[in-house]
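Hi everyone,

Forwarding the result from last night's run.
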Amino acid sequence: MSKTKKSEFRPDDFVVYPAHGVGKIVSIEEQEVAGMKLEMFVISFEKDKMTLRVPTARATEIGMRSLASPDLVDQALATLKGKARVKRAMWSRRAQEYEQKINSGDLLAIAEVVRDLHRNDDQREQSYSERQLYEAALDRLTREVAAVAGIDASGAQKKVDEVLLARAA
């Protein structure tokens, strides 16, 4: 296997892995898999207490990306201010779409899910599955906001909550 371009990811970088959210590259190590030597990113997801190994050659192909720019975070927060767009499709279909958006790793798509599933106190209760999707999207959004802004998770949560509450007012 020939080495193409040197990867843009380095140890101690925060990265976004589509299916798991924000993680930190702990190291780059060589491992032998099925008789082949592979260079792997070792990514730690602190909140989930999980370590993931991703072949360096396939990282971008899988969808791993650097953290969003501060401008993109601002766009995502602006998306939260918009009016919820709920399609008239059956819940199972909408739930699938929300799940795909969350697992896409796209910050704006995740912000749309948070916007669409957010409920104010005066609105009807969320179903269990709605709540699960909302919390998953909110968690992904706040973790990336925290990593980009260099603040802790509670600070990021407060920032996102302020935007959602301002929308309600």
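The beta strands are 14-17, 21-33, 36-45, 50-55, 65-66.

Cheers,
N.
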